[in-house]
Structure formats: structure tokens, C-alpha cells
């Protein structure tokens, strides 16, 4: 009985996708002896001898020799076409027309170091029909012969990639593009630059290995933030923030006290009394003036305490005096040392969820590593004193740098305890840190330390470096980037408008973390939103989830 059952099962084995019909009413009567070796052999014969050694099934295999010969013939035809200058048309049906008479030239994977002033451009990334940095650079590559006409319709064909994306109006002293480029011409960089405006430069080209991708292999990035030193002054007397600090027992430091006393004395000498000045609880530029910062625009008419007796002439006097004193302000060594002390607290790996948008405390991507933060000695530009803050980190999130700078300046202005406040921002409580103006931010350069070691060690090549063009880059920065920043601040008073907005903000307790107690439950966004909802009030937003400076994410 057992032998009959096994034979039935064997007859059910599929062959060519079909089953042999077997009926239980017609059992075989062949006796089973031992292990039925003869029966197995018969079964193999019946099934077309499909089993090989060990009882495994033999799958049909193609003729590898014939395939190899076919590929060899195809390669011979391709090489023959290249010799005749025809080239092989590998384009998709959606591609543009092939330039038949274009001689194919070898392409090399390279890193292209560039710098640009973002004024007048809609950012770095190619975005037709808008004018962008990538659009102008790619067209210059084509015109200079660095990219063939057959690849001119799509940057992806050249493996075109940027190290860091910058948004509208944002500058970069150094950025990197990786692509496959024709570099046989030793004057290719000069030819490319001849097709570019002066505010956009290619510094040089470096050979890399084929696997190089400038964004993924970037080990860190260096950003620079420029700001006038008067941004670190104590809040103006009579403002909401100034009154909160006094009530909390925090008085202006000696430097800030002397500064505002000198402004009051100057106004007094021009016929503007202290009481008249105090009626101006907010600086004039915030009211109705167009600035780049949405925060300043949000100051409502009701928040600007004016008096009907304060005529236009008096108002202009107040403006002129305050502007002159801001330009004449010179930061003290003690205040500069405090700025540097706060910057050092950021170094290392921390949870920066409070310095961006949409990141939860438990989100692993909120952990970022800052390598170094430094503040330069002050320098004068057109009579106004500035400082340069350099931030070197592995990667950054949206708005992170601007919020870090804002927290430093606000801590200094309000005499907060940075050793207590800054570490609190790395903890779970969510607060609203306003973002400093985008005006002062620029990408200094991407850094490829790890990749350069490999490139120099394994391939004997120089690496992706900007050192050979330092002098050119510095001259370019001063002419096309720094001067633009200085001129815009002098004309529009962007930094002054931003800090004045914080000083007069009356919406809620958003900035109460600057008081002595630091971050408390009452100034967290969750608490304030819940309270506003219970009271049926509209939740006031300090900022929108925009993408003004997406290079900060850099993802990054």
C-alpha cells in the first residue's frame, strides 16, 4: 500500500506547467522491492530525464558562448562608429536631437569649486524658468565646451550635483559641484568664467574618482554670519522687554546704561525731552517699513505707541540721533568675551530640536555635532562696527544657524545666564527662538577631510580643496558679498528692525526664557498654545514653516 501511494505522488510531479492525470481507482500493481531503484530510474525516464546528479532538477541554460560572441560583435561595431566620428545614439525617445557631427570626447568625474553672490538669483537649484546659479553655470559649461551639445539638454546626463543648496538671495564664498566634465582643454576654467557674470565664479576643477558625490561625501560645512555689534546692546528703555527685565531685577549693564544715557542727552540737546522719547516704545523702522524679516512686519499699529503731538520733524530727529549712535557704537572687550563664551557652549554633539522647525525632541536627526564656533575681532565698514562669526559643523537643519545666532545675541542683550539657558534649549521643553536675519548668512565652504585622505592616499590626487584660491575668494567676498550685506543693512536697518521686534513683542510669554528663571512651563509653546485654545484666542505665530535658507539643512 505504501509503495502504491509513493508512485501516485511521483506521478503528480509537474512537467512543463501541467499535471499527469492520475485516478485513485486505477492503482498500479507493480510490487515495491527494497528502495525501488529500478522504479526511480523508470520515473526519470518517463519525466524526460529532467533530474541530474543527486536527484536535483536540471534547469535549461543558454548558450553563453553565443551570447559572448554577440556582445563582442556589438562592441566592434560601436568602436568602428566612434572611429568614424558617428558615435552611438543611446538617447531616449524623449531626448533632444542628436548632434551628428559632434566628436565624442572623454569625460572625467570632477569637483568644481565655485563662489557666488546670490543677489538677483532665485537660489542655487535649477528651477526653470527662474534665473538660478545652477542654470547659469550649466549653460557656461556647455558654451565653454566642458559639456557636449548632446548632453546640454539635461544636467542629469553629466551626473550634475551640488554640495549645498542655497535659497533666494543667499551667498556662498565656496560651494562644490560634482559632474562628469570634458577637461582636456587646460584653459577650461578661464573659458567657463568668460561666459559667467562677475558675481559668479568658478575657482577651479579637481579630478576625483568615479564614485565621488559632493553632497554625500561632504564631511562638514563652514558658515559665516556677519552682524553689526550694536545688535548686542541692551533693549531700548521703555520697551516691553526692558520693562520685563527691570521687573525681574535685571538692570542694563554699565556699557548699555551709558549708551542709552548718551542717546537721551543728545536728543535733549536737540529739543526732544526724555518723556517725548519714551512715548516712542518702538523704533520707527518697524512701523510699515519693508524689511526681509517677516517678524518685523508683524508688529501691529496698536503696538507702536505714538502721540498725536509728536510731529514728523520730531520723529525724524529721533531717527537720526539713534542711527548715528548705532553707527558710533564700539563693543567692549567684556561684551565680546561673553559672546565667545556663549558660542563655545554650542560645541560638541547636542539635541538642536529647538533650533529648527518640525523636529521632535526624540527625533534622532535633531542630534547635530558642532566642531567649532568663533567670533572675530570687530572691524569697521563705512563707520559701522561689525563682527564675523564662523560656525563649523557636520550638518545643519533648517534655520538652525540663524536661531543659534539669535540666542547668542538675545542672551547678551538681556544679561541672561548662558551656562544655564543654552543647555536648557537642548532639553525636551519646546520654546520659540526667533531666527536672526538671513542677510548676514553665507556659506563659507564645504569640507572633505575624510574623502581627501582617501583620494590622496589611493589615487594620488590633490583632493577637494579651496586653499589654492584663498586670495581670490577673499577679494570676491569683500567686493560682491560683504559690500552687499553692509549696503543693505545701512539702507534698510534689517538687524535693528529684528531686535526691535523682539523688544516690543506683546503677544505672549514667548521670550520670557530670557528672564532669570530661564525656560519655565509658562514660556513653552505647548503651554501657550493650550492656554490660548482654552481662552478662545488665536495662536500667534512668530514664524511660518518656510524655506528661506534651505542651505542650513544641508543635509546636510
TrEMBL record:
Region (Disordered) residue spans: 30-99, 533-556
GO molecular function: pseudouridine synthase activity; RNA binding
Principal subcellular localisation of the protein: nucleus
Amino acid composition bias (Basic and acidic residues), ranges on this chain: 72-99, 533-543
Domain Pseudouridine synthase I TruA alpha/beta: 344-449
Active site per UniProt: 167
InterPro entries on file: PsdUridine_synth_cat_dom_sf, PsdUridine_synth_TruA, PsdUridine_synth_TruA_a/b_dom, PsdUridine_synth_TruA_C, PUS1/PUS2-like, TruA/RsuA/RluB/E/F_N
Residue ranges, compositional bias (Acidic residues): 544-556
Polar residues composition-biased segments: 30-41
Record carries keyword Isomerase: yes
Localization of this protein: Nucleus
Catalysed conversion reaction: a uridine in tRNA = a pseudouridine in tRNA; a uridine in mRNA = a pseudouridine in mRNA; uridine in snRNA = pseudouridine in snRNA
Cofactor(s) the record lists: Zn(2+)
Positions bound to substrate: 223
Signal peptide positions on this chain: none
Entry GO CC: nucleus
Record-linked CDD domains: PseudoU_synth_PUS1_PUS2
GO process terms (BP): mRNA processing; mRNA pseudouridine synthesis; snRNA pseudouridine synthesis; tRNA pseudouridine synthesis
Keywords: Isomerase, mRNA processing, Nucleus, tRNA processing
Similarity section: Belongs to the tRNA pseudouridine synthase TruA family.
Stated role: Formation of pseudouridine at positions 27 and 28 in the anticodon stem and loop of transfer RNAs; at positions 34 and 36 of intron-containing precursor tRNA(Ile) and at position 35 in the intron-containing tRNA(Tyr). Catalyzes pseudouridylation at position 44 in U2 snRNA. Also catalyzes pseudouridylation of mRNAs.
Protein name, per record: tRNA pseudouridine synthase 1
Organism encoding this protein: Yarrowia lipolytica (Candida lipolytica)
Amino acid at each position: 500500500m505504501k509503495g502504491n501511494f509513493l508512485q501516485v505522488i511521483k506521478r503528480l510531479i509537474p512537467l512543463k506547467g501541467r499535471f499527469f492525470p492520475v485516478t485513485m481507482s486505477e492503482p498500479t500493481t507493480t510490487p515495491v522491492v527494497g528502495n525501488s531503484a529500478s522504479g526511480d530510474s523508470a520515473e526519470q525516464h518517463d519525466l524526460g530525464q529532467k533530474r541530474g546528479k543527486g536527484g536535483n532538477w536540471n534547469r535549461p541554460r543558454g548558450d553563453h558562448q553565443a551570447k559572448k560572441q554577440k556582445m563582442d560583435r556589438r562592441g566592434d561595431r560601436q568602436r568602428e562608429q566612434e572611429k568614424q566620428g558617428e558615435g552611438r545614439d543611446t538617447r531616449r525617445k524623449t531626448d533632444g536631437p542628436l548632434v551628428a557631427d559632434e566628436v565624442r570626447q572623454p569625460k572625467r568625474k570632477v569637483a568644481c569649486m565655485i563662489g557666488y553672490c546670490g543677489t538677483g538669483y532665485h537660489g542655487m537649484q535649477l528651477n526653470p524658468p527662474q534665473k538660478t546659479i545652477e542654470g547659469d553655470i550649466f549653460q557656461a559649461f556647455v558654451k565653454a565646451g566642458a559639456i557636449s551639445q548632446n548632453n546640454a539638454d539635461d544636467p542629469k546626463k553629466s551626473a550634475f550635483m551640488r554640495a549645498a543648496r542655497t535659497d533666494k538671495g543667499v551667498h556662498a564664498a565656496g560651494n562644490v559641484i560634482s559632474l562628469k566634465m570634458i577637461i582636456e582643454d587646460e584653459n577650461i576654467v578661464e573659458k567657463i568664467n568668460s561666459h559667467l557674470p562677475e558675481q559668479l565664479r568658478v575657482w577651479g576643477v579637481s579630478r576625483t574618482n568615479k564614485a565621488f558625490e559632493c553632497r554625500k561625501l561632504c564631511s562638514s560645512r563652514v558658515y559665516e554670519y556677519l552682524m553689526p555689534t550694536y545688535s548686542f546692546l541692551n533693549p531700548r528703555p521703555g520697551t516691553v522687554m526692558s520693562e520685563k527685565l527691570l521687573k525681574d531685577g535685571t538692570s542694563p549693564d554699565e556699557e548699555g546704561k551709558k549708551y542709552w544715557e548718551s542717546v537721551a542727552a543728545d536728543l535733549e540737546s536737540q529739543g526732544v525731552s526724555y518723556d517725548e522719547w519714551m512715548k516712542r516704545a518702538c523704533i520707527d523702522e518697524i512701523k510699515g517699513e519693508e524689511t526681509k524679516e517677516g517678524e518685523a512686519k508683524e508688529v501691529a499699529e496698536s503696538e507702536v505707541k505714538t502721540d498725536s503731538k509728536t510731529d514728523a520733524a520730531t520723529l525724524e530727529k529721533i531717527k537720526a540721533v539713534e542711527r548715528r549712535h548705532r553707527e558710533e557704537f564700539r563693543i567692549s572687550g567684556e561684551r565680546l568675551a561673553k559672546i565667545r563664551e556663549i558660542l563655545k557652549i554650542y560645541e560638541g554633539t547636542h539635541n538642536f530640536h529647538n533650533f529648527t522647525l518640525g523636529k521632535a525632541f526624540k527625533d534622532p536627526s535633531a542630534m547635530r555635532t558642532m566642531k567649532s564656533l568663533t567670533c572675530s575681532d570687530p572691524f569697521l565698514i563705512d563707520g559701522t562696527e561689525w563682527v564675523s562669526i564662523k560656525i563649523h559643523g557636520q550638518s545643519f537643519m533648517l534655520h538652525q544657524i540663524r536661531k543659534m545666532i539669535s540666542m547668542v545675541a538675545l542672551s547678551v542683550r538681556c544679561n541672561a545666564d548662558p551656562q544655564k539657558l543654552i543647555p536648557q534649549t537642548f532639553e525636551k521643553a519646546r520654546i520659540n527662538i526667533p531666527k536672526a536675519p538671513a542677510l548676514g548668512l553665507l556659506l563659507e565652504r564645504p569640507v572633505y577631510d575624510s574623502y581627501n585622505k582617501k583620494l590622496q592616499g589611493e589615487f594620488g590626487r590633490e583632493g577637494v580643496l579651496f586653499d589654492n584660491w584663498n586670495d581670490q575668494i577673499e577679494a570676491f567676498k569683500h567686493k560682491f558679498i560683504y559690500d552687499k550685506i553692509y549696503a543693505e543693512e545701512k539702507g534698510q536697518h534689517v538687524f535693528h528692525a529684528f531686535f526691535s521686534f523682539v523688544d516690543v513683542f506683546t503677544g505672549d510669554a514667548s521670550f520670557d526664557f530670557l528672564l532669570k528663571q530661564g525656560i519655565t512651563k509658562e514660556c513653552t509653546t505647548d503651554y501657550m498654545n493650550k492656554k490660548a485654545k482654552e481662552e478662545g484666542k488665536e495662536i500667534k505665530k512668530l514664524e511660518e514653516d518656510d524655506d528661506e535658507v534651505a542651505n542650513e539643512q544641508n543635509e546636510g
